[in-house]
Design brief:
Layout: E1 4-6, E2 16-17, E3 31-33, H1 39-42, E4 48-53, E5 58-64, H2 90-93, E6 97-102, E7 111-117, E8 123-124, E9 129-130, H3 140-168, E10 172-180, E11 186-195, H4 197-202, H5 205-214, H6 217-226, H7 229-245
Antiparallel strand pairs: 1-7, 2-8, 2-9, 3-5, 4-5, 6-7, 10-11
InterPro entries: SapC
Organism: Rheinheimera muenzenbergensis
Protein name: SapC family protein
Length: 248
């Protein structure tokens, strides 16, 4: 059960967090929600797709990490941090931390503060990254986490307007991903949306200018460009199958 508390340099002076990624820490996700504020980095590593959320009729971008349930093909236990990628999606990178809001005396707007889940499997008192320096200041790792949380917050604020613009211009289309593995198995992934390349290419100058002024045009191109990583994801899966087939 989660145990989120406001992080502070007195109660958590000796708290450490493992900056390592593995299935035992809950990182075996086949996809993870991602945000416009990280598309520029994500497009070089992962396919960026979109899911429709029926409960509130909204859209959410996701990075595809695997091709089956509980499968993250970017996890590599032989690597130092367990992750085979230069950029780690923010919702995974943040680990046991999340943003909260606290009303400070004399302020009209609540202040964003960092909370930590002390029940998270990466949190301990012995191993991993320290959160505070001996004199009480934030460690470089904690500053990195604060930056990651701010990236998530910025991205969440953009998500609604971004997908409203895309749907108004009919830029989203359902996509079925059909692929074959080296052992002959054929599979199909469905339930995702992607950028409709034909519609994007046919946009007129006023529509392109509208997207550009909002900062959304480059995001559409980033999503479109990222789809090339589907083939590399399939190759990662094939490599795992080949390794599993080799005699011990």
């Amino acid at each position: 059960m989660s145990q989120h508390l406001l992080l502070n340099n007195i109660d958590h002076q000796h708290t450490r967090v493992l900056h390592r990624f593995a299935a035992e820490y809950g990182d075996n996700l086949c996809s993870v929600p991602v945000f416009a504020s990280e598309f520029s980095a994500l497009q070089h590593e992962y396919p960026i797709l979109v899911q429709h959320k029926q409960q509130d009729d909204s859209f959410q971008a996701v990075a595809l990490l695997g091709l089956a349930a509980d499968e993250n093909l970017y996890l590599k236990p032989q690597l130092a941090n367990g992750w085979d990628g230069r950029y780690i999606p923010a919702l995974i990178e943040k680990g046991p931390f999340r943003i909260g809001f606290q009303q400070q005396e004399g302020q009209t707007e609540p202040e964003a503060v960092v909370h930590i889940d002390l029940a998270h499997p990466k949190v301990n008192q012995q191993y991993g990254q320290q959160l505070f320096l001996p004199q009480g200041g934030n460690s470089p790792y904690l500053q990195h986490i604060a930056d990651t949380l701010q990236r998530i917050q910025r991205g969440m604020a953009v998500s609604g307007p971004l997908f409203n613009a895309f749907t108004q211009l009919n830029l989203l289309q359902p996509v079925n991903i059909e692929y074959s593995l080296h052992n002959g198995e054929k599979h199909r992934l469905s339930g995702y949306y992607c950028i409709n390349s034909d519609v994007l290419a046919a946009l007129r100058a006023p529509e392109l200018e509208q997207l550009h002024q909002a900062g959304f045009l480059q995001l559409a191109f980033a999503m479109q460009s990222s789809l090339r990583h589907i083939s590399s994801l399939i190759e990662r899966k094939n490599q795992l199958l080949r390794a599993a087939a080799q005699p011990a």
